[in-house]
Structures are given as structure tokens and as C-alpha cells.
Predict the 3D structure of the following.
Amino acid sequence: MASTSNRMSSAKRPSASESPKPRSSIRISLHLPVLVYGWSDAEASFHEDTTTLLVNASGGLVPLASKVELGSTLFVVNKSTQQEQECRVAYIGPEFEGKLKVGVAFKRPVPNFWGNNRKGLRISKSMRVWVRGVDRNGQKYNQSALTVDVSQHGARLDGIGYLSVPGASIEVRRRWGKARFRVIWVGEIGRPQAGQVGVICLEPNKNIWGIRSK
């Protein structure tokens, strides 16, 4: 981030009348912590921590307190991976919890930027598992959950969403097997995925689901 000011000053600021590009892939609900920096309406630079609402391969939707202009340049940092992308403000919508909903578009599609790409086919399967981790208040928990779907590299779990945050590391146990996973996304309240989390395995040599890649 040492060269932030240089990139911001040299980046081209498109005209505010520029039309937004159409979405190139389906958006999904995903709460992911990000850092957004760029220019506000007052021509002052800003840095703002926020959380995505929706994402796809071409960009995402984030709530921002800073007042930005349609067509202006922003930079988005995925705080889980520290990857960064230059973006254009393609949409400014109604307020969400006192902040504007801002749609950002990548300069080119980046399918893996949000970390929600699935490695391998997922199978719909309900299995009882036990999950150990640390909740939003820093307290340890150990509770049961159910799988919604699984793959050799990850899963979707139902029952621990309110305890988890993106980027958290958890242990999942099934029968006599266990493995460490990282929480990639947390379902948004009011959405069909509420209470669910998407996780990816941190120990690729372990396959606690008993499925084989195809």
C-alpha cells in the first residue's frame, strides 16, 4: 500500500456520464471484508473498511460512507487474501444502513478475486458434523452443524453462520475424520443463505467427506 497515492494520482478518472457495463456473470450474496480507497466527491482521498453485499467475476456491490461519483476509479483490496484490483464505479444505489450501495466493476473479469470459486463438483448431501472455532466475540465454540453440499475441497455448512466471519479458521469433524477449513463467505440475513457459510479446506490431503474427484 506504500504506492497508493502514486497510483491514485496517476489513474485516469472516467467521465461521470460513462454508462455502466452489463454484468458478465451471476451475482451471489457474499459478506467479505474489503478495503476500498480512491477519491470522494470533494476530490479528497479516502480509505474505508467495508463488507461486500454481492459479488461476481466482474465486480461487486459494497456499502460506502464516502461519496463517490459514477465512473470514478477505486481500488478494492480483498482483506482475506490481500489481493487488489483497480475498479470503476458502475452503479450508485439507495442507502444501506446509512451508506450508499456502490457497484464496482473490474477493468477485466477476475473470477478468483473473491475466493469463492469452487474447486471440483459439489454434491448436495446433508451430513452431521461438529465445528470448533472462535466466534465474533472471541469466545471459543464447539457445536454441531449440517452440510448443505460438499466437494473434495470445500463445503457449505448450515448452523454456524451467526458465529463466523469471513477469513476465520475452523475445525470440522465428521465421524473419525477432521480437517481445518477457512470461512470464505457468510450468508446475508434475509437471504436464502442466511445462517450458512462457505468453507474451503486448508488440508488438501484430507478428505473427511469420503468423495472422490471426477
